[in-house]
């Protein structure tokens, strides 16, 4: 029977294990057969560690001393017993594996433990700067305990004036800084202002105790306005002009109000202009933002507000929405005038070259439009494909495979970090694999990025290859940029749901860049970024039982449910791939609100005037990617269809 993984058994193995290995031997090259065998042994060793089977753990560790992931086994064992480990053992690990991501990871755990135990001398000895604010404050606190006050407080003003909330471990440092006279009321007000303007009220509130009484009153009023922007018109303290506090608070309140409801905020903006409680320089950018927000909502007053902004205060977004509003009105001559009002750099972008050609066609200047379309059709992108459709040209599918930089690839493949990354990827641990790659890709030049992309593509890591190839500026290797992973699963899902496999590939590439482990801040998961609630509804509808939300990281399950969800959206939007794509991103209800109220609108105009920039760009990319995947799959290249977007018909 295995003995419990107790303090003495564990400590004994840790002291014994370093004798088996030096930092140079565990990176020695192994054959693929040996690696496969050691990979299995490594997984068995992890299981033994978790179960407390020290006998099997020791036996397996002997086999793994030259395996690339041996440091990970050492780390997991030491991390589990850190509270009972001695400093010598921890420092030996930190020294032996300093060139792995595990050293800073364990160091952070160790320093937090030392702080909990008030072991200040050990903290000073073991701390290394790494950009972690909490660990920095732990070290500063340790220096304070050693009476090294000047060193402890040096440079702390930079942390204080940051936008982030300070961790609780910084409290002793803040108190000491204030005692030493560094934290003045002016410095406190500066932090409060920075926090509020960054939208971090928690960071701002940390300054409240250190403000003088008058500024505390202003700060509390500012926080109240943040919650209820209408106070800018109601509170008597906010009606005076020429006061810096009033100007900042009122400007903040207007922006908060507009972010919540731009139409409701519009009269308040006009009233503030009448009262002159903020300066012209502060108000004009606010009015510009209001005009853009109202244009996105297609408000009847939007164009007037856009035209009221002085030319000196226009920006690209404002000028673009002026064009979009004219597109919605079908006013082609005004569209041309608005585009030609743009500065040369903006006018040269494919979007506005395309819309200028469309407008020329709209006023009957077909010859000039054809010339513009044909020039644009040489581009392999959304607007190039649209332009090609207007001239019956074949879409441009520029495809130039990247030449393999074999020497650079061999150099990378020989690095210990890359060997560890490969093993981690093959074990299905991409996050750890990326941490290893980060060690060798910091400030990488295009040659190294290209070599890394080709190397991981050989491993089957499609998503990472796409990202690095893009960073290298190599846009024309379509096999690498638009690979066909999980092809059997994609084509099976497409066949079952009667959807284009190219469309499914396009959605998956845009959603996750073919990284099945991805989880979004909104909790969307997997290749097609399904929310657990959506996946559960779809699964319930087909009588499928999900084994928890983690099953969405399985590509076959995710593709099956994602394709059914997309099919359902397509059916609800009368077979319109454009609006179904938008609904996949922004939600069905929003798209219904954005549909034309009466007459059908050309699909390209509808896409160009989608209110949310994220959804607008999403649909454009999926349209473009669908065409490229059609080319890659040997299908007729069409992109998304149809050519019109109609009103909602329940």
Polypeptide structure, described:
- There is one protein chain.
- This protein is mainly α and 650 residues long.
- It folds into five domains: 7-128, no CATH class; 214-314, no CATH class; 319-390; 406-474; 487-645, Orthogonal Bundle (Lysozyme), CATH 1.10.530.10.
- 65% of the residues lie in helices and 1% in strands.
- The chain is built from 39 helices and two strands.
- Strands 1-2 form a two-stranded antiparallel sheet.
- Helix 33 crosses helix 39.
- The termini are far apart.
- Residues 1-28 have low confidence and may be disordered.
Can I get a quick summary?
This protein is mostly helical and about 650 residues long. The protein has five domains: about 5-130, no CATH class; about 215-315, no CATH class; about 320-390; about 405-475; about 485-645, Lysozyme (Orthogonal Bundle).
CATH architectural type of the largest domain: Orthogonal Bundle
**Strands of the biggest beta sheet: in what spatial order?**
1-2
Low-confidence parts: 1-28
Q: Report the C-alpha radius of gyration, rounded.
A: 30 Å
Helix and strand composition category:
mainly alpha
Please give the domain count.
5
**Strand portion, in percent?**
under 5%
Q: Tell me roughly what share of residues is in helical segments.
A: 55-70%
Q: Quick one: biggest sheet?
A: 2 strands, antiparallel
Q: How many β-strand runs?
A: 2
CATH class of the largest domain, anyone? Mainly Alpha
Q: Average pLDDT, to the nearest integer?
A: 94
Q: Helix segment count?
A: 39
CATH topology of the largest domain: Lysozyme
Protein name: Soluble lytic murein transglycosylase
Family: Belongs to the transglycosylase Slt family.
GO cellular component, one term: periplasmic space
Domain Transglycosylase SLT: 492-604
């Amino acid at each position: 029977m295995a003995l419990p993984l107790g303090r003495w058994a564990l400590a004994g193995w840790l002291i014994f294990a370093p004798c088996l290995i030096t930092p140079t031997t565990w990176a020695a090259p192994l054959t693929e057969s040996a690696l496969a065998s050691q990979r299995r042994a490594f997984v068995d060793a992890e299981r033994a560690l978790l179960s407390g089977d020290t006998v099997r753990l020791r036996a397996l560790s002997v086999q793994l001393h030259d395996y690339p992931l041996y440091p990970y086994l050492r780390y997991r064992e030491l991390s589990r017993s850190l509270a009972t480990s001695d400093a010598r053992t921890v420092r030996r690990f930190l020294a032996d594996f300093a060139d792995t991501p595990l050293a800073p990871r364990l160091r952070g755990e160790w320093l937090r433990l030392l702080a909990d135990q008030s072991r200040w001398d050990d903290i000073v000895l073991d701390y290394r700067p790494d950009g972690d604010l909490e660990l920095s404050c732990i070290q500063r606190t340790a220096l304070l305990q050693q009476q090294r006050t000047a060193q402890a407080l040096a440079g702390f003003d930079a942390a204080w004036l940051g936008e982030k909330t300070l961790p609780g471990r910084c409290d002793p440092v803040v108190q000491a800084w204030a005692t030493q006279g560094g934290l003045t009321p002016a410095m406190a007000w500066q932090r409060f202002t920075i926090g509020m303007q960054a939208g971090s009220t928690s960071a701002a509130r940390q300054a409240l105790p250190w403000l003088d009484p008058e500024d505390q009153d202003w700060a509390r009023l500012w926080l109240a306005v943040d919650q209820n922007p209408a106070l800018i018109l109601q509170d008597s303290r906010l009606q005076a002009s020429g006061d810096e506090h009033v100007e900042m608070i009122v400007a903040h309140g207007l922006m908060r109000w507009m972010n919540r409801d731009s139409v409701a905020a519009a009269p308040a903006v006009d009233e503030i202009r009448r009262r002159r409680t903020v300066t012209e320089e502060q108000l004009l950018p606010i009015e510009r933002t209001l005009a853009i927000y109202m244009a996105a909502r297609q408000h009847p007053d939007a164009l007037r507000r856009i035209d009221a902004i002085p030319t000196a205060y226009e920006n690209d977004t404002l000028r673009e929405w002026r064009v979009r509003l004219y597109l919605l009105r079908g006013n082609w001559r005004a569209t041309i005038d608005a585009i030609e009002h743009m500065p040369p750099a903006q006018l040269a972008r494919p979007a506005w070259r395309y819309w200028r050609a469309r407008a020329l066609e709209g006023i009957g200047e077909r010859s000039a439009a054809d010339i513009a379309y044909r020039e644009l059709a040489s581009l392999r992108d959304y607007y190039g494909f649209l332009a090609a459709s207007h001239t019956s040209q074949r879409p441009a599918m520029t495809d130039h495979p990247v030449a393999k930089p074999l020497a650079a690839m061999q150099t990378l493949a020989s690095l210990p970090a890359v060997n560890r990354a490969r093993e981690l990827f093959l074990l299905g641990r991409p996050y750890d694999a990326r941490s290893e790659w980060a060690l060798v890709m910091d400030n990488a030049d295009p040659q190294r990025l290209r070599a890394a992309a080709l190397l991981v593509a050989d491993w089957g890591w499609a998503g990472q290859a796409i990202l690095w190839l893009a960073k290298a500026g190599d846009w024309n290797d379509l096999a690498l940029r638009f690979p066909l992973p999980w092809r059997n699963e994609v084509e099976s899902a497409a066949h079952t749901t009667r959807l284009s496999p190219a469309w499914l590939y396009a959605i998956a590439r845009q959603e996750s860049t073919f990284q099945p482990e991805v989880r979004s801040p909104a909790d969307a998961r997997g290749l097609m970024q399904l929310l657990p609630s959506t996946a559960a509804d779809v699964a319930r509808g087909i009588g499928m039982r999900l084994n928890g939300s983690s099953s969405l990281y399985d590509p076959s399950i995710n593709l099956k449910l994602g394709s059914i969800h997309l099919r359902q959206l397509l059916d609800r939007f009368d077979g319109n791939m454009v609006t179904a794509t938008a609904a996949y991103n922004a939600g069905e209800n929003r798209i219904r609100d954005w549909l034309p109220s009466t007459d059908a609108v050309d699909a390209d105009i509808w896409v160009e005037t989608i209110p949310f920039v994220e959804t607008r760009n999403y649909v454009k990319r999926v349209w473009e990617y669908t065409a490229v995947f059609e080319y890659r799959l040997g299908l007729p290249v069409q992109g998304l269809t149809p050519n019109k977007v109609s009103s909602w018909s329940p």
